[in-house]
Amino acid sequence: MSALDVTSLSVGFGDRQVLRGVSFDVGAGETVVLFGPSGVGKTVMLRAIAGLEPRARGRIVLNGRDVSAAPPEARRIGMAFQNFALYPHMTAFENVASPLNAQGIAAPAMGERVRALARLLKIDHVLEHLPRQLSNGQKQRTALARALVGEPDLVLFDDPLRNVDAKLRYEMRIELPRLLARRATPSLYVTQDFREAMAIGERVAVLVEGGIAQLASGAEVYERPATLAVARLFGDPPMNLVPAQAEARGGGVLVRAAGLGFGFATEMPDDPIFGIRPEGLVLHRDSGPGRTAAKILAVTPASEQYVVLARTEGGIELLLSRETPPPSEGTEVWIGAARGSGALFDRTSGLCMSNAPVMEEAVA
Amino acid sequence: MAGKAARSLAKVLVVLFFMFPIFWILVMSFQTNGEILSLPPKLVFTPTLLNYASLLVGHLKTSVGMLTITFMRNVMNSFILSAGSVALALVLGVPAAYAFARFKFRFSEDIAFTLLSLKFAPALLVVLPVALEFQQIGLDNTYVGLIWIYQLITLPLILWIVRSYFEDVSPDIEYAYRVDGHSWLGGFVKIAIPLAGPGIAAAGLLAFIFAWNDFIFALVLASGPKQPVTVGALAFVTASGIQYGQIAAAVVLSIIPTFAIALYAQRWLVEGLSLGAVKG
Amino acid sequence: MNDAVATAGKLAPETFRAPRNRLPYLLSLPALFVCIWILVPFFTAVWYSLEHYNMSFPAGRSFAWFANYIDLFTDPAFWHTVAVSLIYVGGSVAFELMLGLGIAMLLRERTLINNAIAVALLLPLMVAPVIASLIWKLMTNPDFGVYAWMASELGFRHFRWASDPSTAMFTVVLIDIWVNTPFIMILLLAGLRSLPSQPFEAAALDDVPGYLVFWRITLPMLMPYILTATLFRMLLALQEFAIVYGMTQGGPGNALMVFQVDAYNEFYQNMNVGRSAAVLVILWAITFVLSKLFVNQWYRLRARNRGEI
């Protein structure tokens, strides 16, 4: 039995349909990440599941209980809000203890549980402070403690690390999954950061224009995006997407883009777009089969890699990334694709036709 | 240089103009009739507490006998009416203000505007028919009837000011409280109201001041034993045998409560006076 | 491979609908009830205005369409009331605005003295208007009033304040100014102190003369506050009753016969309910328009203060 089962969830505001009949599930003890650009409806979805969205339609089943009509207080959910939503007139202790209060737990046991969790989240020394006396990091951890302390059936995280400094964000990306795994608490985690999505969740649901475009493990979504939208969103620097020419060849499709050629064993797309990740392109000094001429326009040293912007002779701009320092700007180079890199999309349907090129050749 | 002196002079003149009448009536309240009636007006004299004493005790020995003064009853009436109408307005208005702030439902704007425009409507337009009706249903000259009608003064104020405060409280905080497992009512009582507390207090105090200072409603709807100080003080002037010192003392007693509130709640007065548009 | 659930455009049939929230209606029901309850006398009054209804002659009560209104509009006494009311409103609000603005500019800096003065100036506003009238009545009493005495010392022998038709309006307007200038002052002071400092700093750097700073920078930025305060005062001054009634009940003669005093006298002295109601309805119509203007202005002021635009 899954911890959360959402069926046909729809939310509309006036004439705008934010969510259209979305369905998915979260398994017992699993963390599913809701990923998508801002404004797409991730928070709306979370609120609908929490029971805070009166305009929601659809069925929500938690641990086998149908809570679609239940008010938030009856759903046994914990929620960590983006802006913390701590009670300003109560101490951190009282904030965290609030769910236990609602459950009617006696004071001694309540104190025990609050302090144990506070120790785990390293806020036990500030429990007597008011929220305004806490740092952002402490506020967020207090909000997390409050969401977890009642041992709810499901925990909802609304981009909790957005308003928190980089160091804490990095720490939490490691600690949070560990914490959740230890308690085996099923969770739904919202984020706009794809790296966070890959780090935290067992599965990632990519939300695009009112629906889930792909629901799979983070690695899967990264390496084999199901649609153009997913490919664009999931990756930084973003995947190169280049208009291509395609012709049928031997039961498959031969695609030419940016001076390179690839074969795909799939149907002919309507409006072909060729996609390849920056780390799938390689810089060479000399020409050779499967390489195209280009000029380096700019080099950006990013944190774990170098990002190169180059322009092919055909005028197409490509992003490449690599770990070692590249040649300097203005250098004439040859660009080839790493083996197995490349994807074929159809712009009309937005779908990915194939993620696995079967052959490569150079195009004169 | 000259500019600074001119500003200081201007400030002195302004303060004089606005403070002098209050100062003067205070002086008068400590003077005997003889001292009051003498010209030029006396500033140096031995103050007497007789005026206040006679008001508090309720009678005055005059040359023509014992005069009964019921001004203290007026003061009590003012308290009952003002406090009562504010209390009722809070009970009716705070939940409504919450509803208007949190739920933008149809009619919310219309109701709010209607209440406000009724407050701005000529008082007699509402009060004269009510006076006729009250006579028929026996609510004439009763505390209940007056407190009911006073809602026209207090309710719109509470509604508009408190609504503004509720709107400033982030709804997420109440949502979090409900997700924790508390009912909506728990959230309203334990979260919304405490966080809007200062606004509710400000609105209540301001409403008290307006209710206390009202004249026209009381004039039409109250007579004799139910009259508040506004009507009572005026009646004083026309009563026979009343001495000016007592009138002055009565005036001072009438304005002490509102003065006290103003000094205590001055921080919120700007907010209240602008009906919540301007925050301190 | 992919657990892709491509749902774009495909709407599943509704399986559940959350119950409609009745809470807001429940919460505002009592207030709504009061609202409606107050509307009843309002409509009753309108009805009266359409009747020949005189309490001293109950048998003659009959429906009269707009007879009362026609009577009023053709009666010079009514137009006198209109004139008197407009003079009252114009005089008091104009002076209150200028004085209030001037004092607010004086007290603009946040010093201890300025703040103390601002608090002290609140007090006249806390005095019930009828009591203020009473205070001034005592102070202008020809026999012992200190103001009467001052006036004669300054050479104004026989200045009769409110007892003389020619000076009665001056007197009540003065009382109104005394009571209500603090209202405008406190609102404008809050506005002045909340103005951003950059434009003024820039003007100082450019050596812009004081009066230009006032007209071109201060005044325009203060407009929302000025408009709100002015409309509010106009609304209330049009309906002024307590100050006038407290002083002279409309006299001497009918020198101070403003709208509500007129209506009051019609009702209680002439017993003419119909005519009294008609006067009030006309007054209401004017204040209704003004109150709509006021509410719009109020929203603009609030939005400005919240940083929205």
What does this structure look like?
Chain A has 364 residues and is an alpha+beta fold. Chain A has helices spanning 42-50, 92-103, 107-120, 136-149, 166-183, 194-200, 218-223, 228-233, and strands at residues 4-13, 16-26, 31-35, 56-62, 65-66, 77-80, 154-158, 187-191, 203-208, 211-216, 240-243, 245-249, 252-257, 260-264, 272-276, 281-284, 291-301, 306-312, 317-322, 332-337, 343-346, 352-354, 357-362. In chain A, the strands form five sheets. Chain A has a six-stranded mixed sheet with strand order 6-7-8-3-9-10, with helices on both faces. In chain A, strands 16-20-17-18-19 form a five-stranded antiparallel sheet, with no helix packed on it. In chain A, strand 21 (343-346) and strand 22 (352-354) form a beta hairpin. In chain A, helix 2 (92-103) runs parallel beside helix 4 (136-149). Chain B folds into two domains: 2-70, no CATH class; 72-273, MetI-like fold (Orthogonal Bundle), CATH 1.10.3720. With 280 residues, chain B is mainly α. In chain B, strands 1-2 form a two-stranded antiparallel ribbon. Chain B is built from 14 helices and two strands; from the N terminus they run αααββααααααααααα. Chain C has a single domain (51-305), classed as Orthogonal Bundle (MetI-like fold), CATH 1.10.3720. Helix content of chain C is 70%, strand content 1%. Chain C has helices spanning 23-49, 67-73, 76-106, 112-126, 129-139, 146-153, 165-194, 198-205, 210-238, 242-248, 259-268, 273-305; strands at 51-52, 62-63. Classes of the chains: A alpha+beta (364), B mainly alpha (280), C mainly alpha (309). Chains in contact: A-B, A-C, B-C. The interface between B and C is large, with 92 and 90 residues.
Write the CATH fold name of chain C.
MetI-like fold
Amino-to-carboxy terminus distance of chain B: 32 Å
Q: In terms of per-residue confidence, which ranges of chain B show pLDDT below 50 for 5 or more consecutive residues?
A: none
Q: How helical, in percent, are the residues of chain C?
A: 55-70%
- Could you say what the CATH architecture of the largest domain in chain B is? Orthogonal Bundle
The rough form of chain B would be described as globular
Which structural category fits the helices and strands of chain C? mainly alpha
Poorly predicted regions of chain C are: 1-18
Task: Please report the number of helical segments of chain C.
Answer: 12
Main sheet of chain B: which strands, in order across?
A: 1-2
| SS element count, helices of chain B | 14
Total number of domains of chain C: 1
CATH class of chain C: Mainly Alpha
* Strand percentage of chain C: under 5%
CATH superfamily of the largest domain in chain B: MetI-like
CATH topology heading of the largest domain in chain B? MetI-like fold
